Amino acid sequence: MSKVAVLGSGRAVCASTLARNGVSVTLFESARGPGGRMSQRREKTEDGTELHFDHGAPFFSVSQSEVLHLVKDWELRGFIAEWKEKFGSFDFHNLKFNNIEQEGLSKRYVGVPSMNSICKALCNESGVESKFGVGVGRIEWLHDEKLWSLSGVDGQNLGQFKGLVASDKNIVSPRVAEVTGRLPPLDINLVTELSEKLLNLPVKPCFVVMLAFAEPQSTIPVKAFSFENSEVISRAYCDSSKPSRSTASERWVLHSTAEYAEDIIAQTGLKKPSDITLNKVAEQLFQEFQRTGLNISQPFFKKAHRWGSAFPAASIAPEEKCLWDRNKRIAICGDFCASPNVEGAIDSGFAAALRLIDSVSSL
What we know:
With 363 residues, this protein is of the alpha/beta class.
């Protein structure tokens, strides 16, 4: 029997830390590959050209010593690198860049050759059994055996575990039923205190638009920038400028404002957006990008994606860094616990692992 089940490859840091400390881990991920919000999107154009985009978190920074220690190890192992580009800020009121930073002010890291390289490497470590394409549909607590029993979305038995790590803030949320038509995997009454903290967690939706250009957009003086005074677009990143990326085309990823995304969702609902909606979003964000007056050319590829609730708007356990029930040996962790960014997700996963190591090893 595996001792601990980890739900979601976004918590690969937790799975890796557990395995390195002698706890056997089974990781379940409903998607085909690892990464969650750090996943890579593969697209094909009409002529068969394959394009890759980091369509979620574009990079991450580190401020805490515990996380920096992990990051330096990853850098030595070659699956992350520093993204050494200048960032800027563009103001739509005066159609000018207000600020272009000097080099070396802050380090920004990216996975290489893609953001999901971090999760890929950690999911493949010794002691971690990773099962992709396996969604968990039901989680039950066996009171007499004091074990967690997991069932797949299709009802198949996935095993029994002494400890459980969940990384999805929607694990007890009725929102799951709105989106998928299924009940949330975990009964709210099994972990009442933990559930209460998760139920009204504020989130920021976001649409991203992936663009590919045949030629460099040489009129843009930076490779990443934020926008001021736009109701539509918040950030733009040149994905192909990151280390170890293909430069056969110049690829940009645009992020909408949360307000714009909320407005679209209010009109269309929480279910998977239609192609009509996504095409409309792609066109609107690209038009706003062109409104900068930077002479941006027409892309040969343009596609939108919705992140419905991936970006938390608050942290619910900034001191503890994860939610923890010692009696049932369940930890719920993620950027919504520690701080709403990649570093917060790493920090929270590490904290959850430490609690489980102490608890499971004493059994």
